[in-house]
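USER:
Make up one protein:

ASSISTANT:
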Amino acid sequence: MKMPSAFIYPARLFTLTPIRKHVFNMSSAQRMVVIMNRQQALQQIIAFGEQRDAAVTALAKFGWDPSFEVISIDSHALIVVLTKYMSGVISADDLELWANFIECRDELDYSEIDGYIYALADPELMGGISLTTIEKMLTLLC
């Protein structure tokens, strides 16, 4: 049975596109957005993972949900991100944006590392982000 390419339903036009064709025509980042759930997206951003850009896009599609599952961010996650800064993988601006993201998300519990997040999110108030300050943070964390 051949499906029509479009049909009309209460004053709206819906195009029927086979999902396989649609997904195969997407870039890998677009495919990640399709299959990434809220928790996976948050984990990508917390870990400053390779798919963080797709994760930000995915989170924007979810919107705010009052029935979210809280994800805890511990010192290990902070150490991983600070190490990425020390090795030059991310910049001071990236680190500041990351900390601001952590602060503004209701579904993230960062109480274990809240002083560090505050210092990173407001670097002008706390002496700035530099190799020296991050090295001091890592020394305190380890």
Observations:
- Strands lie at 6-9, 12-15, 71-72, 108-109.
- Residues 70-142 form one domain.
- Residues 1-26, 29-34 have pLDDT under 50 and may be disordered.
